[in-house]
Amino acid sequence: MGTSKGFTLLELMVATAILGIMASVALPNLSSLIDRYSTSANVRAFMQTLKFARYHALKSGTDITLCPVNGSICTDNWNKPIRVFQDRNRNQRVNAGEEILMSSHIPIDQNSVITRSGTGNHLRFNWKGHAFGSATTFVICARENHQASRQVILNFQGRVRSRGYLSRNGTPYASLGSLACPQV
User: Which residue spans traverse the membrane (predicted)?
Assistant: First the structure.
């Protein structure tokens, strides 16, 4: 009789148990990694939309409005689709003859939310590319992991940058004031 090749039931059970323990250690880290990458993708898409609007204001020499829309009317819910357009009469809605330059839906999933400092339902870039009275901070919050949340900061000159939501000591930056990620 020859020797049989294969694993015993005990060897398979031990290997499965070890694999299960390793997976339980790795999965929480994987979830955190997914949150970070998802939030980073949302931040990049949002920043590109802001830069697109500023570029077209500079290129066309006219004011360009950017706002989240509900139908054709600007709303203050920045999780809605965002429209970039020439708002010649500055009424924060797309009228006949006003060109829509971009309609974008930032891929905010059920795990993220965008909040904005200050008031107002739109941003306007003037012909110089300046954020016309609209310097503001947005926070793209990861609902489950605030360590992954990011700020998008727009200054009066129309320049946009991002940084983390939490400082090194784990608290939101004081400059955010009442702007906070919702608690889960």
Answer: 6-27
